Model the fold of this input.
Amino acid sequence: ILSLLMCITVTSQLHVSTRKIKSYISTEQYTTPINTHYHTSATNDEATAKAYGIRCYDATQGSTQQFVSFDVNNPNKIDLEKDLSQYYIRAAAHANGFYYMINSRDGMCPYDLLAMDMETMQVDTIASYDVNDYESAIIFLDMTYDETTSTMYGIGYDLETAIVDDNNEEELEVKLALVTIDLIDGSMTCIGHQDSCNLLTLAADNK
Done:
């Protein structure tokens, strides 16, 4: 059974074509990179690890938005934990018993920061963003939580840095941004930009 839990979104280049972005979103061939969360529990004196993630494609269902889990020792058996079809999750990460998710109603920019209780599976909205506010106009690629500093980080293309190509109005050059996300009010703070290396995923070693 073909099932995609993690895949690359939009484009792998910093030189972004607005026409290509619209094409990728409309065909839904590219969806969301998700940080898989692992939970370890002891059963019969043997440690078993369960992984969680967002399933964005299934061979029998096509494009999906489902919160799923699987035993890392048996990844072929995937269990549905919660249907999230009313959302379009661009990035997510676990922190302190909650699964924080960036919801994008247009498939690109963030509209909401969601928090799902891992015990009850209830989803609440922490913050909603104005798509016209360039401070939060990030095309998210990934998120990760640093337990050592209790900080949620995210990376993505910062539309505030977009520059239109003088020779081609359909071409944009957009810098990659590293941001922190406040889990109380959803506010984002840009740590910095870079355009020399295109990063698609992000992780903290928590040591």
About this structure: The two ends are 36 Å apart (CA to CA). The first helix runs from residue 18 to 27. Helices lie at 18-27. Residues 6-46 have pLDDT under 50 and may be disordered.
